[in-house]
């Protein structure tokens, strides 16, 4: 049996409501039993029914536990707490859900913020999958919406790890979670690495997750992966994570290390974003030590470190790492490799853009504003098979301040190969080499020639071109990039366009034998019929650079201008976070324009407007008129009251939003309850922000809810009051406001 509005997809489970009731007499004996069996019991039905149902349920549980497949464990912070066997019986906390689960399980975690009391440790026999993004009513994983219903696990800046996956675990998957504010800040040891998640051995899958504001003294500010059999990271974001120690830090976003015999299978990082991460030593974004890795379809933006602002590939391996179809923009290093540093690791890089990356090192310390390569110091680290290969890349606006190699620096006596690439508007020092003062704006090489084929390189046209370059099919003409700093004229922002115009000399001029079949955005090679084919190979019409012809990047539209402060604009209220623009104090017409009131039990008793002037006990942070669901004033017959007050649509814009309102809920012997809920799909489904069955302090409270997770959506808010039939007093609300910062109570 469900009580609900026919026009709305969300429902209140009546069995769930029964568990909240505090009935006298026989009803007290019915807690936790379905409404059907409870009614039979109360009306003299078969007394054997409850015990029969209990035995039957126990039998079903036995069958479920005996099944080889993973069972689902449900977690929902807005439920009263159960055994995790259904949404209605969901665990309230992840602590309990993990503590009481011993076999391979699939955790479905409803939206909201969870704050574990200690690191969530997965030990023996815990081979689990954790899925977030649920409303709390779904029957299939495909029904969840990670964006609209974020599931956040918050270490609060206190937990040494949010999740600690021990070596007993053979496999683990995190999917659709936001993991934030873990702090592995011990001076050394296990608690110095993996602030968000640490996984020791086993198979790891990270999918559709966000790691933000995590930190570690040493490795893996957000994610530390150690000796893992397999690593797959897809569709995830790593933002504003930190690795702190100048002596041991590595991988503020992700660190993966291998210290076992043999070579592990290649890790995959696909369709991820690393932004604003910083490391005091190696790799602001991704650090790999002795662990082969393929990185593709990803963005690295404004990360920083001493070596490898975005990526550090450390220590030699028998095979080459691959980096393909990636954007590196605005990353920085204080030593080597503003975007990428590869030490004794062969690397193949294709279809990548390097723009506005840089290093501030001195020549004695490092170089390579875009990429820094090093074949390894003799003898223990030297890789005699080391090769750096670049195909169809674009290097633009990179810089090596006070050192060499604005685009690429290659240290050592191992070869480098560059095919079908663009180097333009890069900067660095020059050096005396091969009898002349040579520019290193684009590349800096030493001792051994660099093979450059079918490439547009600016400094090749200078009187003294770069040293040690073996070139063929190359030129030094303006590549005619569409708009390198975008419409906003700000380098390193989302509207930067580093594709080539149709009229570019790079059009149809590459060697097709070396060109990947598709470009950085997976477009196939096409012949421009208006341009003579100057290229060679198969096909002979591939373009030079990361893009095949012009391309327009997808850029979010700017928000509309704000309306005057304090004005409501139904049906859509624009929230621009430079000011407060949504405010309702119930001083005007009732209900206010755009608001709706619903009567879910048909009693006729619904939200009303009341004058609370001179009565602070009703709502001390309210004034004048307030909205109230008041059983004492309305429900003289004691028949109950189930009513909803629903806001007009409210458009939330980035970056943050907070709801504040005056509230006073007073109950009578636990016979009433309240909800504050939010919807991002026009009321089709709802998520709970507040659920309460106990009294507020005398005079009420000033409530604040963080709505930042819903920014970018048009929301509805609803205040739900339910009184089973015991004149359960009232709920008053007033002075509702949404602001860019947590609103303060009115004075």
**CATH class call of the domain at 573-739:** Mainly Beta
* Count of runs of 4 or more consecutive helical residues: 5
Helix content range of the residues, please?
Answer: under 10%
Query: Strand count, sense and closure of the main sheet?
Result: 14 strands, parallel
The class by helix and strand makeup works out as mainly beta
Q: Count of DSSP E strands?
A: 64
Radius of gyration: 31 Å
In which order are the strands of the major sheet placed?
Answer: 3-4-7-10-14-18-22-26-30-34-38-42-47-49
Give the strand content.
Answer: 25-35%
What does the overall shape look like?
elongated
Tell me which CATH architecture of the domain at 573-739 applies here: Sandwich
Outline the low-pLDDT stretches.
1-69, 562-579
């Amino acid at each position: 049996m469900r009580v609900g509005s026919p026009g709305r997809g969300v429902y209140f489970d009546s069995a769930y409501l029964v568990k909240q009731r505090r009935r006298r007499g026989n009803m007290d004996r019915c807690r936790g039993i379905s409404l059907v069996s409870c009614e039979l019991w109360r009306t003299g039905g078969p007394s054997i029914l409850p015990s029969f149902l209990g035995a039957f349920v126990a039998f079903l549980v036995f069958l479920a536990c005996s099944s080889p497949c993973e069972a689902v464990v449900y977690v929902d912070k807005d439920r009263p707490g159960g055994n995790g066997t259904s949404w209605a019986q969901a665990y309230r906390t992840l602590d309990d859900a993990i503590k009481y689960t011993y076999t391979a399980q699939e955790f479905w975690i409803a939206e909201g913020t969870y704050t574990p009391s200690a690191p969530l440790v997965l030990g023996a026999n815990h081979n689990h999958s954790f899925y977030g993004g649920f409303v709390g009513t779904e029957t299939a994983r495909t029904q969840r919406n990670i964006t609209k219903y974020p599931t956040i696990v918050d270490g609060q800046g206190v937990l040494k790890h949010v999740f600690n996956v021990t070596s007993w675990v053979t496999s683990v998957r995190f999917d659709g979670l936001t993991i934030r504010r873990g702090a592995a800040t011990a001076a050394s040891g296990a608690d110095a690495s993996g602030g968000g998640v640490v996984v020791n051995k086993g198979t790891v899958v990270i999918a559709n997750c966000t790691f933000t504001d995590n930190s570690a003294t040493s490795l893996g500010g957000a994610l530390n992966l150690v000796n893992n059999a397999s690593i797959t990271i897809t569709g995830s974001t790593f933002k504003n994570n930190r690795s702190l120690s100048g002596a041991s830090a590595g991988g503020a976003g992700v660190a993966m290390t291998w210290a076992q015999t043999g070579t592990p299978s290649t890790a995959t990082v696909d369709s991820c974003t690393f932004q604003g991460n910083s490391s005091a030593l190696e790799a602001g974004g991704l650090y790999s030590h002795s662990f082969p890795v393929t990185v593709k379809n990803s963005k690295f933006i404004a990360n920083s470190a001493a070596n490898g602002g975005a990526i550090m590939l450390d220590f030699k391996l028998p095979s080459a790492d691959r980096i393909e179809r990636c954007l590196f923009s605005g990353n920085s290093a204080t030593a080597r490799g503003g975007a990428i540093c590869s030490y004794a690791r062969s690397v193949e890089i294709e279809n990548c853009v390097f723009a506005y990356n840089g290093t501030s090192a001195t020549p004695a310390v490092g170089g390579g504003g875009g990429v820094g390569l090093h074949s390894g110091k003799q003898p223990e680290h030297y890789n005699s098979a080391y090769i750096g290969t670049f195909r169809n890349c674009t290097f633009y606006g990179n810089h090596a301040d006070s050192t060499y190699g604005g685009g690429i620096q290659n240290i050592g006596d191992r070869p480098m190969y560059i095919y079908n690439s663009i180097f333009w508007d890069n900067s660095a020092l020059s050096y005396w080499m091969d009898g002349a003062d040579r520019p290193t704006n684009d590349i800096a090489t030493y001792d051994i020639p660099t093979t450059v084929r079918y490439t547009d390189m600016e400094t090749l046209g200078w009187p003294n071109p770069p040293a040690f370059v073996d070139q063929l099919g190359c030129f030094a003409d303006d590549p005619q990039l569409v708009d390198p700093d975008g419409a906003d004229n700000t380098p390193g922002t989302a509207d930067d366009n580093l594709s080539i115009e149709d009229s570019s000399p790079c059009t149809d001029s590459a060697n097709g034998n070396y060109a990947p079949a598709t470009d950085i955005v997976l477009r196939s090679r096409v012949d421009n019929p208006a341009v003579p084919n100057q290229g060679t190979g198969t096909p002979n019409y591939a373009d030079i650079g990361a893009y095949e012809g012009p391309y327009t990047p997808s850029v979010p539209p700017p928000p509309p201008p704000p309306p005057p402060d304090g004005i409501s604009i139904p049906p859509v209220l624009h929230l621009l976070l430079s000011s407060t623009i949504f405010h309702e104090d119930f001083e005007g017409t009732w209900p206010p324009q755009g608001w709706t009131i619903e009567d879910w039990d048909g009693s006729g008793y619904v939200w009303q407007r009341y004058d609370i002037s001179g009565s602070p006990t009703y709502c001390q942070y309210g004034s004048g008129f307030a909205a109230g669901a008041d059983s004492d004033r309305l429900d003289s017959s004691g028949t109950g009251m189930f009513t909803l007050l629903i806001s007009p649509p409210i458009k939330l814009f980035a970056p943050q939003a907070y709801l504040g309102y005056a509230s006073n809920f007073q109950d009578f012997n636990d016979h009433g309850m309240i909800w504050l809920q939010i919807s991002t799909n026009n009321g089709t489904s709802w998520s709970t922000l507040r659920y309460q069955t106990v009294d507020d302090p005398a005079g009420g409270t000033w409530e604040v809810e963080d709505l930042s997770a819903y920014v970018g959506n048009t929301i509805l808010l609803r205040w739900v009051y339910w009184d089973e039939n015991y004149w359960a007093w009232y709920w008053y609300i007033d002075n509702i406001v949404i602001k860019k910062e947590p609103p303060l109570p009115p004075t």
